[in-house]
Specification:
Layout: E1 4-9, E2 12-17, H1 28-43, E3 49-54, H2 68-71, H3 75-93, E4 99-103, E5 106-108, H4 110-117, E6 120-124, E7 128-130, H5 133-136, H6 144-152, H7 154-163, E8 167-168, H8 169-175, E9 180-182, H9 187-199, H10 203-237, H11 239-251
Parallel strand pairs: 2-3, 3-4, 4-6, 5-7, 6-9
Antiparallel strand pairs: 1-2, 7-8
Helix pairs in contact: 1-3, 3-4, 3-10, 6-7, 6-10
């Protein structure tokens, strides 16, 4: 079974996280399949725009804590996990194709980060986002240490990341972190229509627009991704992180 589905309809490719039983939580299989799907969509000359979404009740519930012992089993496993997580941000942000997020339910941790990596975001009115990393002893990834201060300023960005405040769709819209809020039953229709609207623009011009907008960010984003990866690797290996995750499992 694939943890990610890739479908193509004309010039629009849809990439769907497909672990609904685990709320599309991030594990090794999902990371590998998502990288493959995004790479294929980004490299397909027939595709102009990518829609990124999740199957079931949530977009993505963040790191799969039930896989933590496997992810943290060895230094090599930790390094591979953190590198794979950061690669998804590169796939989304540094490819030429615009990525439209169609996000519903929960977008937590890495799921919130992937939302912030998208070029445009359509959110269902039931969306809730937050960063649980600091409470768990993990570290934020996805370039958000660079992206969020740019969008919100240092203090607000720090508050969101360190306190893990839950933010609903309307507040995300007010903060300028998403573009549309729609009823859940019209989410995919709205996101696909937006993707087709973008696709009707000249693809070469849109690709250049994305490259120009990320050109200056490539160095700073790359620096942030590398620094986050180093910090996330250290946090994965810290004994306090294992204790906190074990305590969370026991409290459920």
């Amino acid at each position: 079974m694939s943890f990610v589905l890739l479908t193509k309809d004309g010039t629009v490719a849809t990439v769907t996280l497909n672990r609904p039983g685990r709320l599309n939580a991030i594990g090794a299989g999902l990371l590998a399949d998502l990288h493959a799907a995004l790479s294929e969509a980004q490299s397909d000359p027939a595709v102009n725009v990518i829609v990124l979404t999740g199957a079931g009740r949530a977009f993505c519930a963040g790191d799969d804590l039930k896989e933590f012992s496997e992810q943290a089993a060895t230094s090599a496993a930790i390094t591979a996990t953190c590198a794979a997580i950061q690669q998804i941000t590169r796939d989304i942000m540094l490819g030429d194709k615009p990525v439209v997020g169609a996000v519903a339910g929960y977008a937590v941790g890495g799921g919130f980060e992937w939302l912030l990596n998208c070029d445009l975001v359509v959110a269902a009115d039931d969306l809730v986002c937050f960063f649980p990393e600091m409470a768990l002893g993990h570290f934020v990834t996805g370039g958000v240490t660079h992206l969020l201060p740019q969008a919100l300023g240092h203090q607000r960005a720090f508050e969101l990341m360190v306190l893990g405040e839950r933010i609903d769709a309307r507040r995300l819209l007010e903060l300028g972190l998403i573009n549309r809020v729609v009823p859940r039953d019209t989410l995919m229709e709205t996101a696909t229509a937006l993707a087709r609207d973008i696709s009707s623009r000249a693809p070469h011009a849109v690709a250049r627009l994305k490259r120009v907008m990320t050109r200056d960010a490539r160095l700073t984003l790359g620096t942030a991704l590398a620094a986050e990866e180093e910090a996330a690797t250290a946090c994965f290996a810290h004994p306090d992180t294992a204790r906190r995750i074990a305590a969370r499992d026991q409290s459920r």
